[in-house]
Amino acid sequence: MSNCTVTANGGTSRERKLRFRGGGFVIEQRTWMSILAFIALLVLWQVVTARGLVSPIFLPSPTRVLRALYELAVSGDLWRHMSASLVRIGYGWVIGTLFGVAVGLMIGLFTVSRAVGLPLVAALFPIPKIALLPLLILWLGIGEGSKVATIALSVFFPTVIATFGGVDSVPRNLIRMAQSFNVPLWRIVWQVIVPGALPGILTGFRISIAAALLVLVAAEMIGAQYGIGAFLILTGNMMQTDRLMAGVVVVSVLGLAMSMIVATVERRLLRWR
What we know:
mainly alpha
């Protein structure tokens, strides 16, 4: 209900209640809009291919892609390729993450490590890690070692940078307060610095998973018998575009699943925020 006030010239004016605007920006999750956009894209894709606007050799219909995906699952080829890729990305991501977090913590905590390590990381980070694959093949052979090492390198550098940034963003007054109570260094690191740096570290995990998946597919295209990348290059050479698109769908689902796992871990570990 609005109130009336008397103005200077004797008239009246209505006071309009304004909505409180101090709540900041609140992002609403509207899952139905995402689902609707995805369905609209599939319908458009099906209409374009059904009307013959694009040749099925270059763009097969969604129904053909689903049929190819079903045939791959029934024959067992899908699981053979997926299992090989999951093993490679699992080993590479774990190795790169462990070394990346350790080096990032050292750079963030110790002056000598920062003076030596930060310039090296800054110089090596921009190099595309897939460009190092031929060199790693010379060193480690064309087997699994070179592929896992390439994935580990693609994970290592973004994890180092994210961990160092997270450590650097921890409020210094919390560290000084712990030092004033003579808290041991290892407890300060474990109970103050690591929890404060955790949001940055988990953000680095998201970035490193995307980088690992990209390098995985590219590395498997060279000298791999099984794997999603080997499957994509084989079907591309044979112009089997329905199976090729099925492989692309598998890569997309794999990346989405990994992102959801990291998001779940992030929600559980960062409940205090």
